[in-house]
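Summary for the funding panel

The consortium committed to producing paired sequence-structure records for every protein in the target list. Below we show the first two records in order, beginning with the earlier of the two.
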Amino acid sequence: MRSTRHASAGVSPGTPHVCIRCRIQTQRRAGHTSAPAPAASNAASTKKSGTESIRPAYRSKPSGLPLQIREISVPTNLIQKGDTHDPRPLTDQAYFNELSHESDGHGSRIDCHAAKLSRREESPAKLRRAVEPELPAQKDLRRQRLQREHHEMGRSELDELLQKHVELGQTAGGGGDVHGKVAVGTDKRGESQKAGGMPSHRAKRMDKARRVDDEATRPAVAYNTRFSPATSPPKKSRTLQSPEHRQPRGTLIWPPPPSAAQYSQSRGYHSSRNVFQQVAAAQNSTSQPFTPELMPDPAKWQSPHGIRAQLRQWQEEYGHEQDLKRQDVDDGDDFDALGEASNNLTRLPSAKMAFTNTSAEQEEEEREAMAHFMQAPIDEPTSAELNTRFLNVGDLVEIEFMKSEREPVIAVFVRNTGTLAQFYTMQGRWVHLPEKRIQYSIPGWFRKEDVEPLLQYLPKPEEVESDFDRLMEDAYLRDLNVPRWVASPLVSRMVRFYEETKEIYRRHAATLDNAHDLMAHSTNLRYGTLVSAATTLLKLPANEVPLTALYAVRQALSNAGFAFNIDRRSHRLTGYLQIRSKEQVRMVEQVRRWLREWQDDLATLASKTSKQQRERHRSSQGAWYVYNFLAKAKAIVQRSRLDRQPTPSNIGPSKVRLPITSKQQCVRSTMEEEFNDSDVELVRFIEAWSLSQMFAGVPRIEALPPLLLQATGLYEDFELVTQTGLLFLQELGTVMPYENRIRFDQHLLLPASQHSKPLQHLMTTLEDMSDKQNPFVDSMADLRHDWGELPVYCIDDAGAHEIDDGISIEDAGVGADGGKESWLHVHIANPTAFFDRNHALAKMARHMGESIYMPERTYMMLPRWATQKYFSLAPGRPCLTFSARVDAKGQIVDRKIRPGRVRNVFRLTPAEVKELIGVNDDSNFPETVLIVGGDSPEPKHRVSRVTNMDARHVEDLKLLRALSEQRSNIRAAAGGLFFDTHKPSVDVWTAHNRMGLDWDHPYRRGSRRVEGDPVIRVRTRGLQNWFSPFADAVGTTVREAMLVACEVAATWCADRAVPAIFRGSVQRAGKMDSEAFYRDILAPAAKESPKGEYPMHLGTRYLETFGSTEFRTKPFKHKVLGMPAYGKVTSPLRRYGDMIVHWQIEAALREEARIGRSLVNADPKPERSFLPFSTPVLKNLLIGLQPRETMILKAKRYADDFWIMMLLFRAHHFGEITLPFPQVWDEKTGRMRSVVRAYVHVPSQASLPSVACMIMELNVIASMTSGALANAGVGSEAKMGDVWECMIGEVDCFRRNVLLMPMRLLERVEE
């Protein structure tokens, strides 16, 4: 909270208000040098000045340090009635007469101007400009005028004008909120300002250079080549400009003017409205009730016919309506350069910039939707809507404005229109935006019947989806809003919720504004939920926290900015939040302070035109830190460019080539220590911005790192965005030139990411355990069945890190119908029998969620020493066996679960099994292999047991294959859907004896030069129809056996009323019924196909009609798989959810052994206290487990995509290899380009510059520029199912995307 720059001194009632600076100057001219006395604090002086001094009786002080009290002036009329505005214009004289009674952040500077006006020393128009921030249109005109005048000026005149502009911009931006005299406690470590006199030189400096508190709106001037205050100013200045606003060289560009919203909405740990909340908090803490009698009587000093009386009358009549809209009023443009709407409720927004995604976001979502299918495990196909908590009609939601920090808006969810969701706000406006943008909702706030009356007045879904731009144009010309009498019941209830929330915030403002200090750890990252935060801050039990209080706490955490963090991919589902450590917040604030001092120093230097003035100038310590860092960084980057060429998406490959041999790696690093402690902090600051995206949603911090990049002068041809920040770190050597940035995801929190110190300590504990001699005890030892010589077939890739499962087949005799029956045994590794849920291994498994396999590294859920030495399936190892007795048709007639121990284990690869059973299903799809960086090392020699297998073993494998085909038919008859995406295989090497990369960590102490690059190999069979009949006989055999085990586990638990984690399909309202889709669309299309298969673009749509996968504690139908019950149990070594089911089953088995009978009974509520997880605990675990699995699924897909893009990047842009595709000459670029075929899986949209597609030769996600479609001669729209011939344009490693330029249409499916 900012105090006013000049505090008015106590004066007599008839004396004009004069600021301290002006009074000091007057006294000096009269021969007085002493500073004026501070204002009197008694009631008489307060009444004379029209303000009230309010001191809270209590204020929380968590740090234990004494508090310093500062007073901020609040006009008494604001405390009584709230901020009011007269819609009629004031005359100039009346305008300044009114301002003379208030302090609005300009301090008594307004009073001085009013006094000058009364003496006619300044014109009213000039004074109005001096105290009012300019409107954006006025600022644009002034900036354009200065640009035109630049060409007509000399150097000296330009410097003078530059200084004038800096001062003028600071004066215009000096305004703040209207403050009152409120006692504000600050820690001694804070930066509170003294209330007494101020030296004149400091007052001048603060008045000149520190009027704007928000760095993002500060009119900073940065010279590219200035790294020392002693250097002479360069001949031109450059400022940060977005590409669309970038001007030609030689044109003077002033920084963009701040909008009014940035002044009124800017906040650090306090919102602008917290001023009044602090007032209310102080009132509630006084010993006696605060009443209007404590305030001076306005009638004694205000005219009954004055403007204040008229404003008060207007407020009483119309203020209740205006207050609802004031939070959204903005003098700025409808949207900023980042695409965030800043005034899109009081004025209808642009369809492209208001509530719809930006083009980049929509392109990314389209690619994710298709890539999610590609990466989804075969045993659980799912839709792109996985793990999304769907909104229902009547849910109360919060609409945020991430890029402008505007106050959120309360709205009600009306319906889905297709790709967008429709909402109705408490301001009486309808808006459309993607449902995933909603981060907070209250289910069932309104009944469906309450919302239905709005539907006939709202845009129809078909209108929104077909032509949203035209709809918005109509909304500008005609009133398309819901009549007030229809919407008033909803609006009034939303307003009441909003007002109750604000009242709770006011009562607890002192605590809520101090939330981070109360909840954060000094050095460690903490976790919490919104409910836990509310109970901590409000001192209420969780079941007694009202929804309004919960939302008030949410607003407080949002106001804290960087201090709290949420994962926007899943927060609405989980409510989880990260509480950043006080140390980390202090680091960010410290670097912000350095950068502020640096900006001030640049502005000061720009005003010094003579050499003597610049030599006498002394920079502050923070400014020197930045100057020195920039000088070192610039030198390091220039050295780096001697070996590696920078590009917008990634640094290029090294000019040095190092072949892989038995004695050397293909990468060599050299590090030099050149940075001091302050440099390290600046590097960490840029890391947080570009690598971990920690500043997303905090624009005032997010705007600072680009200034450093700009100041180096080395990135003039690059957009100053996060990917350029990553390029900067690569050129410094902080991260490796080929670093996969997904590793640093702040929510993925990999143990090696260095985000969490407790996690690193847990890793150390597990490493220490590896030295102990067999630290485990088998809790199922007495119940284990010895499987003896029964063959167990473990079929997996040769490079598998751990073996979870094996399959056996055993003769079960003849069934009741006379047919042959068999026992199908699925043996699963059993680590949970050796430690409980509170063990260190279990804690690491819960954090990880599952093992994360990336081409460069594997992040194990359980340490490798534990899996390889004790738990991975091998001869003599323990297991948990899921058995099903099946007939010749694949029907399950009996089931059981037994702990056991396997002896006769055969580890086989899929290729070996195919050879044994005599199948070759890959002949029609030859494999394409691409390699950059040299030859791939020879694989390690593996001892195979194929030579030990006889005819019996081959017959077992053939029987398993036959049963798997029968099981597939059963699932298909139950409505199951089958598909296979045939994902490319990616491998990476730097050494000959192992795959992957070394465990490199960020190097922040200086430069790191990396010579050479990894060897990358991609193997693919190209894009095949995902819904073709399965040709992979071995894959089908393994998959069906695992599904049998999952069904056995779910059914066994259901029979015994054992809660666990079960998965199934949930149909979403509004989606087309899957049976109707199949009957009306899919089946006719399959009949027309020569092979009788589903067209791929229709198959993906069909898959979406099945709904989404959901987790529950009781089994239910999985419609996509065609199974009555499904619970994953086959991968306890790499999936925490499977471990939970194993713990529950083991506890039930031990209980059955103890009581000597089965737990199967008809009791609807049996006693299950022996289980390690109760149903409520499981439900709580499911909240975070499902989003965690989705995050890991995407992380693995991103890693594969990154390395494929890195291979194409080095091949296409640097010519390391020639891609095996046709080549054509591109006249625009004057170079040869590869030609590929692109399959369009989503329709193009006119508002997007590209359409998502897939490169058919590689089976890789790409984007095709829609602007070039018209030039291809087929119109401007690509349709689903199209096949286009395209040139490869650019390969973007940062966004993991290939940009294609269409040449001609090859195929188009019929409608």
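The next record, for a separate protein in the list, is shown here:
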Amino acid sequence: MNKFIYLFILVLILKSTFALDTKVIEVNNQLSISSLDNIETKVYITIDSSISTPKVSINHIKGSIESLDDVVYFKDNTIHLGDVKTMFNLGSSDETLSSSNRLGFNLISLVGIFMVSLFTMKSTGSNFKLLLLFGVFSLIYIHALDVTGVGLDINIRVPIGYSFEKLDLQLKNAQVDLQSLIVANLVINNCIDTMADDSIFIKSLYVSKSLKICSNNNVMIDGFNHRSDGASYEVKSTNGDVSVKVAGDYKGSIKFTAASAPSMTGSCDYDSSTSMGKQVITGSCADSIASSFTIDAPNGEITWTSNIPSGSCPTTASWRESAQPFDGPVSPPIPASTPAVNTVYSSLSDWRLMEDSDTIVVLDQGAIKVPLAKWGPADWFLCRTGFTSTLTKDLVYKFSFDFKLGAALSGITITKVSVVILDYPWGPFNVTRGWGVAESEIQQEFISPDTFTSLDWVSRTITIQPTNSFRSGMVLGLRVKMSAGSGDTLPVFYFRNMTFTTPTRSSTPSGLITADSKVVTLRKPSTSLQPQDYSLCPHLQSGLKHWHDPSTWPGASVPLPNSVITLPANTKVLVSSCSLSTDTYQKIIVPATSELIFSDAPIVLNVKDIYVEGKFYIGSKDCRLNSTVQVNFYGAKTTTDTISSMMGSKGIGVSKTGFLSINGKQYHNTWSRLAQSAFPGDTLIFVQDNINWEVGQEVVLTTSTWKDEFTKQNEVRKISAIQGKKVLLDKPLNFLHFASEDYQVEVGLLSRRIVFKSMDGLNDFFGGHVLMMGEGQISGLQLINMGQQNIKARYPLHFHLAKTLTSSYISDCSVYQSFYRCFTIHGTNNVNVERNVAYDVYGHCYYLEDGVEENNTIAYNLAAYVHTIGTPAAGEGQPGEMFYESAALRQPADSAAGGFYITNAYNRIYGNAASGGWASYSFPNLKIPIGFHSNLTSINPSSRTTLEFDGNSAHSSGYHFWFGSCIYVGGNLSTQSDGTLAYKSGRVDRDTVDYNNPQVTVWMRFSNIKVSLCSSGIGHWGNTIEVVKYESHDNKVAGTVFGEALLDQALVNAKSANIEVDKSLAPNWGFQFYDTWTHTILTNIKWKNFHPRVGAENPHEDNKIIVSMTHSDIYKPQGISAVKNFTFDNCDVSQYVGHRIQDTGASRYFNYVDFDGSSVGSSGTPKLIGSHSSWWNYSSSCQFQADWNAYYCNKVSGQEVVNIDVEAPGLIDPDVLVDVPNNSIRGKTTLFKYGQADQTKSAVVTSNVGITGISNVGWYLYLNNSSPASFRIHTRLIPYGTYILLAIRYPAGTLFNINTFYQWDYQNSKKFILSQGASADVVLQGNGKQYYYFDGQHLYIKLVNHLLTGASTEYFERNGVKIYSISTGFYYIISATCPGGNCAVSDVYPSFN
């Protein structure tokens, strides 16, 4: 028993050694922070566009305390730091040791405990009490020392443009680093402790009333902006240097002293003198001075008083506010390791008993009570509900708890106790299988049963080191096995302090991912920032007039916000931070000859409408602003055009003559991929690319699951610290975000310094919008809550009917929580949309609207978490569903909303990433343009091929529709007779041709594509496609491509290490060959991680590489599939082919040609793979592979897969199709010739047309009981140089008329009349258009397609693999006159061999 108390004391001592905490306090515009003790403090400011009131985040970063409440107390808008419990009588003192003192003291304490325990081993009486007292006093002593060594990080987070009335910082030991601070009265006193030597740094300070700063070390103010008359300013250093750079045209008095000669730049008049050994300068800066000044005073003090008219900005034409800093807040250091996280599960709702009785877990005196029935279960589990942590292989976790019995067990013996991890145990109880625990107990750690016999509380800590990684959603529990009870005492178990500990992790791990792909190249933008030339800044040019200067406006009066404000003609108006009212401006108009220009200063504009016919600058291409600027849009939902005609309301409209330039600080990269998986509970993440992101900015981590819309595992976090490629988040993650060498999810930067945000109308999904009909240059802009759902042309950022532009772009912007789309190109060409991030969006995101948009560049963008509008398009059949335009769905294709919506493929699309959406990339078919261009009926957008589609990636999509995919080429959008739109979501063919020569086919080409977590990686309903360099990971099927299709240089990985892969993604298929008419070539493909799926009832439920399509008897495969150069990595041979045996033609005739034998593991020898039917056992080289249900044979040169249709009315009728062949068997085909000695190599013939087999051999066709008197044979696939020797049974004495016929040969040049030959061999040696032979039992015809010449148009060939084209229209017509009109015959095998 004493051992447990020792352990308890030890835990308490160690617990007091390390602790970290975070506290967030909401404050108002009068904030004070006061240090009561010498706590090391860092104070800084972060601009946060996501909040509306200031918040102070306090992080414990150094030393040890029990809780931040011990050293932080908030009262009357003052934050007190120090021993607040003692100072304010809040309870017992919780002062703690510094980390170094604490550790040293604890080591002494442990030695003491050890020595006493040795003595106690000999005597357990008073010595035990002594030990207990020693432990208690040790803990008290630990908590009785000062707080020296404790460090706090204080982040004052403020909205864009926020102004404090008062900020008072009374600090003892603090580093102060502030930027972009707007305040009326500022006090920073860092001189309280004369020993403190921290400096004060301030960038861009705006003070309207008073300033008083004192420091024992350096004070530097870079960019001091003054606001009013009579304000006083004082900056003092007792031991360091003072440097102040005043921005703008300062007017007023100055005075400063220094230990040595101070320096001053500027044009103020001053006198110099000496006083008490210091240099003293006094003077003034007159109204005529037109420059800022800088003072450097070693060991000095500066005072000055401004002389500006109260309540206004300077109006001197040359006055400008100081440039804002490019650099963001200085990041605090990232700890060497992330701390261990203890999660205590003490609530009754945390636990559930899993067994077959009606026992209910209750809470009793703070403990979990498990009262079992008298004859309780022999095996029961106490399980943690909602355990969301993932468990990572080889990491060491801990589970600790206290336990006791309610009473001694009577007649019950505990036989086994274990901590278990279960996979979904909450199913219904089954008498024979129980709860399925045996199948789902995937990890266990044993505990001694003796633990569970104590009537006193016993503590246990169990170490768990998983041998595999486990996904979130697993269940943590205690499993107890015991003998059945026989006594009268009811077993009652108590548990408390149930704690799960996630281990500490290094901040510098090894094995970070440096390459995002293995086969493909995912293109990335240039690593350099865009060059800047600040001499070209619009706000620094001469000739500007200040908005706040009455002389700028007619009538010498600054217009009020509640009026329609039109800038004066031929005028360039400059807006500064002090120019605008905080009220909402109704409408601002920029005439064609005027310009509205924002200064590089913190500006907030509240507005309803802005109409630009001239120019509107918030920065420029060569002069990106570093300041924070926020434009807030207001306005209730309406369809009235309040901006201008056809431009709607609540936003910015730019006419054809107008120009919009919004260019904020460039962040690069705007998104990256994880370099290591981030697990639930993690706060530190690692990215692959160099970034210049900042503390306080928001990022989004995309999902690692398939069904993105349902699992909702995208997460937004703020950056707390950043160091190179390491990013520390403000709070732990809730979900796994996966990264491995296979694929990695994205991390996108949401924040920008320039923000457009909608402030009302959110419940109506009615935000602001930006519409540009002329040139526009937009970069570094964040758009929040923008777009007006189901109102066309009201999108967050939108080029509208601007035709062909020359210098327009949207670059490194972000769209967050959009009501309607992201970035739209409508009726506009030659626009660059690059490096943008979009997250949480309704409707298609990157959007080409009408189908006429071409030669645009969409590159290096990220789209994530895209939602359909209304019910997602679904359906299990190929046609999909129909959707029609309505008020609730103005663009019916939004029922299939995707990240990138490409109505015209003739654009450059590269380097993008898409997460989520109905599809990631959607290429709908528009046979005619829509919308404003629906009258251009000569244009067929769907006939345009990809100009460039390269280096793009996609994941977590394609699950709404049975045939959905991450890259989806399909669906059809059209204009109905009433002018409204209709959308069909499913299969629609697409023919892509040369624009200048429509008779020439051009292939859709996709290169360097990476897809993961998709229903199908790429789905293409069109007729010509090439996919070159392709990676598929964790997809249900790697791809589904129709028409003439090539998949080349690919890696197909059935299963990665992602533990969050949805079970519904199984089975995993490599590629399913279609059952008719397509031409599919697969070359140079590596297949990886294909293993048998437990419980698969047929091959189509298993993880297979090549999969047959076998459901139909109507649709039957011809010779349409071929492969070459397959390799396998960790794949079972049994999984190479998955053919399902069904009573259908598609199943009987499944086949493909392997041009080098690699797909069956015998590289170098071409193979023909056929179905289970002996029909494909055509030579002695054939072998049957039972795991595949298929034959594979050596393919002889010149021997090909051929196909014919036998059309016999009443027997085999092409116009009467029966998909389920009930009673539809009409006969059989059997091979003869080339040594076919037996008659078993046959396949049944049904009432549906179509027979496929091997060429250059004999086919014996026997139709049950009676051969047809009249029929025809359609030679659909008999390639040039091949033939079929067809034998058909007829009664002796039958006469024949046989000729050929070409359906479209109106001159009968292809009509050949056949006559009786001398022998079957004569027929065989002939050309198929001269002779037939009847030997009294069998009619022999050599079937040849005489249309063919061997031209290159007769086959599809890529990479040395050839598939012959189906050629329709050429027939053999047979008429038979049987004796007595009776063609009944028995089945007799042909004698010709």
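Regarding this second record: The chain has eight helices and 98 strands. Helices lie at 2-15, 84-87, 99-122, 126-142, 437-440, 708-711, 1145-1148, 1320-1325.
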